[in-house]
Please model this.
Amino acid sequence: MKLHSRHLLGLENVTADEINLILDTAESFREIIDRPIKKVPTLRGVTVLNLFYESSTRTRISFELAEKRLSADTIGFSPLVSSVKKGESLKDTVRNIEAMKIDMVVVRHSSAGVPYYLTHCVESNIINAGDGSHEHPTQALLDLFSIRKKCGKLAGLRVVLIGDVKHSRVVRSNIWGLKTMGASVAVCGPSTLLPYEVEKFGVDVYTNLDEAIDGADVVNIMRIQLERQQAGLLPSQREYTNLFGMTGERLKRLNKNFTIMHPGPMNRGVEITPEVADHESSVILEQVTNGQAIRMAVLYLLSGKKEQEG
Model:
C-alpha cells in the first residue's frame, strides 16, 4: 500500500488506511531514534528544501532532524536573508530553487492555501508544515501516534481539544484525523475563539471546561496566544486560567487512564498548570520525540523510495 497523493497538504481527505500506514511506518522509524547511531541511508540522494516563511522551532528542527537521520540533503530557507527581501514572489523563489534539482519541499506559511498553491508551481513533493489557520497535518499525525502508543487504540476514545479553536490549524488537523480514526471529538473554548457554525465539523462543542472534560480519555491543550487578548477576544489571563486552564483539580474529572497533551510551546500557568504539564500521564515530551518518527515516515512514503527500490 502507498499514499494516494504525492503531497501531504492536510488530513481532511486522508483515509484511515493511509493514516494507519503513516503511523505503522513511524513505529519502525521510532526505533531508529532510540538507537546509539540514529541514521539510516533511506533517503540518500534526495534533496529537501525547508521553506519556512513563518517562525518555528519545534517543527523546523524536527523536520531537519528527520531529513538528516534519513540521510537526505537538506537546504534551509529564511525570507529575511533571501531575494524575498528584494521583492521576489513566492512562485519565482520556489521555481528558481527547484531548478537546482530539489525533490521535496517542506513549507510553513502564514497564509492558508500556500502548500496547495505550490503544487501547481513546481514538480517537487509538497509537505505542509502549517499554513495559516488551515491545517498542520504532521502535528496531528504525531498527536495520533502518541495517543495510540499510550492508549493502544484511537477508535472509541473521547478526545477534548481545548483553547483557541477558531485560529488553530492544529485543532483542525486533529479533528479530521481523530474523526477518521473513529475517535469522539469535543472542542472547548471561549465563544469568541470558536469558529462560526463549528458544529459542522462533527464535534461536540462546549464553553464550559468542566462539562467538556467530564469522562474524557485524552485532553489536548492548545497554546493561548497573547495577541488574542490584545484583540479583545479573551478576558484577562487570570480569568482565562480560571475558566479554561487545565489544573490539577480538573484532572479528577477525566477517565482513570487519561492522557494530557500539548503541541507546545506551553504558557505554564495560563492554559496549563505546572502540575498538569509534569503529571505522569502527560506525553508532552513524547510528542516531541514522536514528531521526528512521523516526519521520517511522511518523507519516506512521499519520496516513493520503496517503489523505486522494488
Remarks:
- The longest helix spans residues 284-303.
- The mean pLDDT is 92.
- The chain is about 40% helix and 15% strand.
- The two ends are 13 Å apart (CA to CA).
